[in-house]
Design a protein that fits this description.
Chain lengths: 300, 300
């Protein structure tokens, strides 16, 4: 879709670099954000500054949203001067928020009423992935709409996958992803603290585990943070709690248990109770360390 | 240690290719095994066939054992014509069994009484790793003994790490590794079954999760088995239960909880109760599938 006009609402840590990539690829870009400085910064680079979601909808054929959570998405869609009263027929809303799938269904309904389309397309890969265009993007919605939007999504992501036809399928995939991330974090934490408590050097243990079937992104990316005691975020405990709560609510609705994810959610809750909710989510190791009475820091 | 004489006791799926690599590297090799055909096969390739562990001890400076579990190790060491009465002073026993660390301590004591040395050096990497010499080897014992034996260990492994000075440190590392493997298996299982229950294609979900922080050996190696319903082992549920029982016993001794590993052990137990103990350990997904009432097989 060369030259198609694009909108971007939500210019935070993720949205800023994502919108910049779309602009750099030659797309006319209209932007809006709750706080003005981010809008002005993009406008200085050539984007059209808009005062409301409705104004973005007037200017763009495909509109991205990248927001913290469901309440912000619903405000942008259903709030005053929201997208629900302004989307043009045939236009597309692509929500990249890690959202509650039930919210995605509500938004899809509002788009259908306007004769517009909806994809929910959460991403994984942190601000570095957003800057480099290497995000993993998991998209739900009609396959045909997805395929039309694929060239835009591939400006943003290195792995762009259509995971299902229904609204909310992308959100479900992101929640599944967060279940797996959380559970591997727990595994890394228990393994390193167990080794440390038994007198092993956790750094040597992490090295040898990374060479076999136990290897994982959690070990590769987060073990250095554990070993050095660096819990600056990165993804936050509080954000991961949000994702797991949506996953557990969906699981409850489907009447299936998630024993591992439930355990991880409980441990994250214990971190929040200890005032550690704004730390990096690998701080889950601190919950295990407290129970074991030992820390898994590198020796020497 | 070019040309040093080596012994190998336990010529199973792992021991056979490992002993062959030592022979191919030019080391005189003496072998023993409970059943005779494996011994004869190695003898045909140039090894000296021995009738007992004691006979191996008479012929070799460094002796490897690679056995199913602690009872077999203790039989080879403390049983009739065992190593405990036959090791030469200054010789080294390297036990590659995924053993109980408490058994490793007993064996180390017996070696010390003979003036011999002991390393516990469990491996990760399956028969393919044993054949290719790419095993991850996690060794415990005196650093100086480890360094002397490193050239032999590097014939067998691509990643050879000294994890601690004490007897049993290698076993502890292997148990930590198995904690992490088991917990990542649980995470992969919950993520794929959650997605399948919600109507996603588990194959697409596995693909997109493998591109981000959720990536792990479990997903890479075992998701294809889940998607195709192939539970032929590979590592078995029953072996993994053994490892987790040793881990939980050690954790109990150290008075630390392992909530994730405990949950995984319970789910493995449920598989064994269902007559699935000899399936590949990724069959843990079947426990989650039964609870969810859906299977995570590839669509189409």
């Amino acid at each position: 879709m060369p030259g198609i006009s694009v909108g971007f609402i939500g210019l935070g840590l993720m949205g800023r670099p994502m919108s910049r990539r779309l602009l750099a690829a030659g797309h006319p870009l209209a932007v809006a954000n709750r706080s003005r400085p981010s809008v002005d910064a993009l406008a200085a680079e050539g984007a059209a500054a808009c005062a409301s979601p409705a104004e973005v909808a007037e200017r763009a054929e495909v509109i991205f949203t990248m927001l913290p959570d469901a309440p912000q998405v619903e405000e942008v869609v259903f709030g005053p001067e929201g997208l629900a009263g302004a989307m043009k027929p045939g236009s597309v809303l692509i929500d990249c928020t890690s959202n509650d799938p039930r919210s995605a269904e509500r938004v899809a309904g509002a788009m259908a009423e306007r004769g517009a389309h909806f994809l929910d397309a959460p991403v994984s890969g942190a601000p570095e992935g957003a800057e480099g265009g290497t995000l993993a993007i998991m998209a739900g919605g009609p396959k045909e709409v997805f395929e039309r939007c694929r060239p835009l999504l591939e400006i943003l992501g290195g792995k762009v996958v259509h995971v299902g036809e229904s609204a909310g399928a992308g959100c479900i995939a992101k929640l599944a992803n967060q279940i797996l991330v959380g559970v591997t974090f727990l595994g890394v934490s228990e393994a390193l603290v167990f080794g440390a408590k038994a007198g092993l050097d956790p750094a040597a243990l992490a090295e040898v585990m990374s060479a076999g079937l136990a290897r994982c992104g959690a070990l590769e990316v987060k073990a250095p943070k554990i070993l050095s005691g660096d819990f600056q975020p990165g993804g936050k405990v509080s954000s991961h709690i949000k994702d797991l709560r949506y996953a557990l609510a969906k699981a409850e609705e489907m009447e299936m248990p998630l024993p591992g994810a439930s355990l991880v959610a409980e441990l994250f809750d214990s971190l929040r109770a200890a005032g550690e909710g704004e730390l990096d989510h690998i701080a889950i190791v601190r919950a295990i360390e407290r129970m074991a009475g030992v820390e898994a820091r590198a020796k020497g």
